[in-house]
Design brief:
Layout lengths: L4 H8 L3 H9 L6 H14 L5 H8 L4 E6 L5 H16 L3 E6 L4 H13 L5 E3 L7 H8 L4 E4 L9 E5 L1 H14 L4 E5 L6 H15 L5 E5 L6 H12 L9 E4 L2 H14 L9 E6 L12 E4 L2 H17 L7 E4 L2 E3 L7
Parallel strand pairs: 1-2, 1-3, 3-4, 4-5, 5-11, 6-7, 6-8, 8-9, 9-10
Antiparallel strand pairs: 10-12
Helix pairs in contact: 1-2, 1-3, 5-12, 8-9, 10-11
Length: 334
């Protein structure tokens, strides 16, 4: 059984209050007493219950972060940015992975509420935000991440995905491509819907151009590989001449399938562009053109916004959108 603060007090021959002072205000305790209490702590292996202390004080030093896919390097970079900013504010970050499942997202939000976190950063898996609203109703501020919320009463930090989708498709069209396949995800996910809508808008402005959406259940390398195999198996006349993958993981899977099939060359037969510009994008067998999102900046900015809401719960909601950036590599022949 773990040693308690009372066990430490008994071992050191002092009161529980004295042990508490040693832990929290050692300058208020005589040096000899501090030394005796610390020796008792070391002997018993006592570890303070910081969560209980924070609950008693009514002031947590942790924030929750729920992402769509913790295995995606983009979200790993978002988390890194949030952690860096949290350290500046004297906070720490608890990470939850919803795996694009609304039920898991709700479970994490319920857990964070039970833990009385200071606030929550959320990359929502759907348009439904009832659980996030419940947190706010209970005094826990929420900031949406990688999801713009104009007109909403939630603050949000994201990249303009409509603009990003338009940039991606426009680049393919400028390379002379006219049959574009948008690969990945379900349009029930806002990021997917916005990237497709932006691409669709660019395609509509070019006579003779077309775009199709090949949806996938997940936004992973394996999902991209399956979609790429389906495209490679088509007759050459039925294949697109360009693919816009919803993110870089899907793009990597598509490229793997095309290369393994051996009958389709990138970019000669099919140009390929991804989204996020993860570190691995430049190291694929054909270096991948991508739309860059400033992932760490998104994470750190979202944490700063959350910290401001913690300090002032009446603060008006704000929507912060960064501009996406085209990074051209060999996969589009640009």
């Amino acid at each position: 059984m773990a040693a308690s603060i009372r066990d430490v007090a008994n071992e050191a021959g002092v009161s529980v209050g004295t042990v508490s002072n040693v832990l929290n205000r050692p300058d208020a305790v005589a040096e000899a007493t501090v030394d005796r209490v610390r020796k008792a702590i070391d002997k018993l292996g006592y570890v303070r219950n910081d969560a209980a202390r924070q609950l008693r004080a009514g002031r947590s030093t942790t924030v929750g972060l729920v992402v769509l896919d913790a295995g995606n390097p983009f979200f790993a970079d978002v988390a890194r940015g949030a952690e860096d900013a949290a350290a500046r504010h004297g906070l720490s970050v608890l990470l939850g992975n919803s795996d694009e499942q609304h039920e898991r997202e709700d479970a994490y939000l319920a857990l964070f509420e039970e833990q009385r976190v200071r606030g929550v950063l959320l990359s929502p898996s759907s348009e439904t935000l009832e659980a996030a609203q419940r947190l706010r109703d209970h005094g826990i501020p929420v900031v949406l991440v990688d999801r713009a919320a104009p007109g909403s009463d939630f603050s949000s930090v994201a990249v303009d995905d409509l603009r990003g989708g338009s940039i991606a498709a426009s680049h393919l069209l400028e390379q002379g491509r006219r049959r574009i396949a948008f690969v990945g995800g379900q349009r029930s996910l806002r990021q997917v819907a916005d990237r497709f809508a932006g691409a669709e808008r660019a395609v509509a402005a070019v006579e003779g151009a077309s775009i199709e959406h090949l949806s996938t259940e997940q936004l992973t390398v394996l999902a991209g590989r399956d979609a790429g195999a389906e495209i490679a198996a088509r007759a050459p006349a039925d294949r697109p001449d360009a693919i816009f993958a919803v993110n870089d993981l899907v793009a990597v899977g598509v490229m793997q399938a095309l290369v393994m099939m051996g009958s389709v060359r990138v970019p000669e037969d099919i140009a390929l562009i991804g989204y996020d510009d993860i570190a691995f994008a430049q190291s694929t067998v054909v270096p991948l053109t991508s739309i860059r999102q400033p992932a760490q900046l998104i994470g750190s900015t979202a944490l700063d916004v959350l910290a401001a809401l913690v300090d002032d719960p009446t603060r008006a909601p704000e929507t912060i959108e960064f501009e996406p950036e085209l990074v051209v590599r060999a996969s589009t022949g640009g």
